[in-house]
Amino acid sequence: MTSTADIAKIDWRGSASATKNFNIAIYPSIAGGSQPLVPTPDTNGNTALAAYNVAGLAGASVGTFNGIAMYDYHFDLPTTFQAQANTKYWLRILGDDGS
User: Fold this and answer.
1) Which of 19, 39, 42, 75 has the most crowded Cβ, counting Cβ within 10 A?
2) What is the DSSP string of the chain?
């Protein structure tokens, strides 16, 4: 993006049909932008710029691709995430089946 933008929602497609909850996090890049700055002992375990625990997120079936059922998922952020211009961010989405 060439200008700052407020991100209000996240949409994604996946195959996690049994997933009951999701953990979503937005991470900054390391210097050089080649990978996310993820938690390490020297970052005190948390580098996420924003993190969300999303319960009861239902996916709508969109079809089967190569024999795998695919679903579209949607999450409205409780407050917008302000993405800075010309900055690379990394999105992590982890499914939780409740077990």
Assistant:
1) 19
2) --S-EEEEEEEEEE--TT--EEEEEEEEBPTTSSSB----GGGTT---SEEEEEESPPPEEEEEETTEEEEEEEEEEEEEEEEPTT--EEEEEEEE---
